[in-house]
Amino acid sequence: MGMKTGAHIVWDWNGTLFHDIDAIIGATNAAFAELGLEPLTLEKYRELYCVPVPKFYERLMGRLPTEAEWEAMDDVFHRYYAEHRTACGLTVGAVELLAGWRSTGRSQSILSMYVHEELVPLVRGFGIEPHFIRVDGRTGPSGGSKAEHMVRHLASLNGVAPERTVVIGDAADDAVAALHVGARAVLYTGGSHSRVSLEAVGVPVVDTLEEAVEEAERLAA
Which GO terms describe its molecular function (predicted)? Predict the structure, then answer.
């Protein structure tokens, strides 16, 4: 029973460790403009956002986008985001929290739906890669749920028990993915969802990453 059996955090990236909500709103609005839709405010975005993303677009358009519309919007979204994410930084306190968790001998990893080959250099560029035992981005098509990715992610971590694992993310889908594998979840309000929509999920909801880590500590105890 070494340190390996300790608590493990699976961090989400976008909107959680990486404070990119402004770039995401901008990218979403650029994608909407493509179809002549009105731009969204941050509040409206957080109120309506959901995955799969085509479902989110349906809430705004009153219908699902066609295949061609989805491809056009997805393309504009990623182009805009790639250009604007360079101005985004890590969430306040993230570096200290990651170092602190690691210094106690506990493990942590990243599971993101952001493209794997773009995620890794980004994490590396912030100098935080050594804090994680694994960094997994998305491989395969965009738009799906995190649940299946979470199964593979946890299976690839040696000696990490799902019941001692806490997923920290900014989306209802992070909690869905956690519950899917028998892990716990803490949801953070600094990203894509409003507090109201996160509270509907039934897991702890916090306003800072510091509170998220404290909550993770309690849940995994």
Answer: hydrolase activity
pLDDT of residue 221: 82
- Pull the structure tokens for residue 73: 């919007």
Tell me if residue 66 falls in helix, strand or coil. coil
Residues contacting residue 30 through CB under 8 Å, at least 6 positions apart: 76, 77, 80
**What is the distance between the alpha carbons of residues 199 and 208, in angstroms, rounded to a whole number?**
15
The residue type of 180 is H
* Cβ–Cβ under 8 Å, residues 46 and 28: no
- Who contacts 106 (Cβ-Cβ below 8 Å, separation ≥6)? 3, 6, 7, 8, 9
For residue 3, is pLDDT > 70? no
**How many Å apart are CA 209 and CA 215, to the nearest integer?**
10
What does the alpha-carbon distance between residue 67 and residue 202 come to, in Å, rounded to a whole number?
34
Give which of 62, 149, 68, 89 is closest to 114, Cα–Cα. Answer: 149
pTM for the model stands at 0.90
Return the structure tokens found at 27: 């990218």
Q: How many CB atoms lie within 10 A of CB 39?
A: 13
Q: For residue 107, what are the CA distances in angstroms to 8, 76, 146, 198?
A: 5, 37, 20, 26
CA–CA separation, 49 and 53 (whole Å): 8
Neighbours of 86 (CB within 10 A): 9
How far is residue 101's CA from residue 141's CA, in Å, rounded to a whole number?
A: 32
Torsional sign, CA 39, 205, 159, 124: positive
DSSP per position, 94-120? HHHHHHHHHHTT-EEEEEEEEEHHHHH
